[in-house]
């Protein structure tokens, strides 16, 4: 049996998908990952086969830098970083504008490339990142069943009157003006409609008889799996897809290297793990303020500095590297200081670690609001918080440890990869069986 995993060429997307796929691998099944070249090493590290399938202009092997992106994408990345300095609404507006060009990159060509990969691999089941829109377009056009994995906050798949790109909740630290929010909502609706028109045009080119959609952002696969803890999800969000399930998290098995184990074992002093993910480490100004704040707390620190430049000196017993094995360190950490990206949130909670969240963009605001509501952390505005604010918030966040540990115990009981494997086999027929049935119906029609 063969599983095909389709992912954009971004490590932050591929890591949780590859982790889920290890359940198929452990069951003795073949796993093929279709993605771009930047993450080829990551695919190899999991022991999977790889099929080349770029799905967008940009890529991210783990730490993203503008100078490593293709022409045009580098300026877009610099524009995004600049927008984060101007605040929440400006960042979301910038991202809404960018969505006109980056989510459906060469959709007909990429969709046909996806179908070619499927023809070559002959998978029995397919797992797709929800944000791989061109891939899901191909599967919709060809009526091929698949598992749709929502890797971000659940609102990445809108329900009801939600509009893609407009956060469903705001942390208390953010108080945008009503007129700014109204303008942002209008922009997100406009982009939604333009995106849907582009989706329908491409769908018609691929499958002329296919029915168009009224909102392409609400399209989804035959089984929707949310890489998110049910304990953090707003129960008021009704009309979720049927069938769907909350996986909790997709935390990979990760072993610290010998030198990291030496650092971990060198002291019984609690430590904070600090990371702004593969993108937002570029905000060295905020990381610098975090460093200043943490120096006053008595905690040791393990800091993944990413692309940040010009950070202030740190104590000798701190650990600072561009990249750190996040899952391995969170297993021993007392606090996570994070941008509230979904991988960071789910991995911290699986380890039972409370958070100090500093959201900058996209669904990080809704994710941070959920952290706040569930009492598993504290949220501040990264553009407004001072070192004194952060130091005080660290102490508050540490008091959230019991709630975080309780959720972590639940999440560790049934790992997300095991749930994904069982659900996929329960709810979806083997693709070969589906194709055979389709051929039989065609022969008798």
UniProtKB/TrEMBL annotation:
A GO MF term: UDP-glycosyltransferase activity
Gene3D superfamilies in alphabetical order: Glycogen Phosphorylase B
Pfam families assigned: UDPGT
GO BP: any one term: antibiotic biosynthetic process
InterPro entries in the cross-refs: Glycosyltransferase_28, UDP_glucos_trans
Tree of life domain: Bacteria
Alphabetical UniProt keywords: Transferase
Protein name listed in UniProt: Glycosyltransferase
């Amino acid at each position: 049996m063969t599983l095909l995993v389709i992912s954009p060429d971004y490590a932050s997307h591929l890591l949780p998908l590859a982790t889920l796929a290890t359940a198929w691998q452990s069951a003795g099944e073949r796993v093929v990952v279709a993605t771009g070249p930047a993450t080829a090493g990551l695919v190899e590290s999991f022991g999977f086969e790889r099929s080349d399938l770029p799905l967008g202009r940009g890529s991210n092997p783990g730490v993203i830098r503008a100078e490593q992106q293709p022409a045009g994408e580098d300026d877009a990345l610099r524009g995004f970083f600049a927008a984060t300095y101007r605040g929440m609404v400006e960042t979301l507006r910038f991202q809404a504008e960018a969505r006109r060009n980056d989510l459906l990159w060469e959709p007909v060509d990429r969709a046909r490339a996806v179908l070619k990969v499927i023809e070559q691999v002959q998978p029995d089941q397919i797992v797709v990142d929800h944000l791989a829109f061109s891939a899901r377009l191909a599967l919709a056009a060809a009526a091929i069943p698949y598992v749709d994995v929502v890797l971000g906050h659940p609102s990445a798949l809108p329900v009801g009157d939600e509009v893609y790109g407009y956060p469903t909740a705001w942390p208390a630290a953010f108080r945008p003006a009503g007129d700014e929010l109204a303008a942002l909502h209008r922009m997100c609706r406009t982009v939604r409609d333009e995106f849907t028109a582009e989706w329908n045009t491409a769908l018609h080119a691929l499958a002329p008889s296919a029915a168009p959609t009224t909102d392409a952002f609400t399209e989804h696969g035959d089984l929707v799996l949310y890489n998110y803890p049910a304990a953090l999800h707003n129960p008021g969000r009704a009309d979720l897809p049927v069938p769907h399930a909350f996986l909790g998290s997709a935390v990979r098995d990760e072993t610290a290297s010998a030198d990291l184990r030496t650092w971990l074992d060198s002291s019984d002093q609690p430590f904070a793990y600090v990371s702004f993910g593969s993108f937002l480490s570029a905000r060295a100004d905020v990381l610098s303020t975090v460093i200043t704040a943490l120096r006053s707390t008595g905690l040791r620190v393990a800091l993944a500095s990413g692309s940040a430049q010009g950070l202030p000196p740190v104590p000798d017993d701190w650990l600072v590297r561009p990249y750190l094995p996040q899952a391995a360190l969170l297993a021993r950490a007392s606090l996570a200081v994070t941008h509230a990206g979904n991988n960071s949130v789910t991995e911290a909670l699986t380890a039972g670690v409370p958070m100090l969240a500093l959201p900058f963009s996209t669904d990080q605001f809704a994710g941070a609001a959920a952290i706040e509501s569930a009492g598993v952390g504290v949220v501040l505005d990264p553009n407004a918080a001072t070192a004194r604010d952060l130091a005080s918030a660290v102490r508050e966040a540490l008091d959230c440890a019991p709630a975080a540990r309780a959720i972590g115990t639940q999440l560790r009981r049934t790992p997300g990869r095991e749930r994904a494997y069982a659900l996929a086999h329960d709810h979806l027929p083997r693709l070969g069986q589906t194709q055979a049935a389709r051929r039989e119906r065609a022969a008798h029609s």
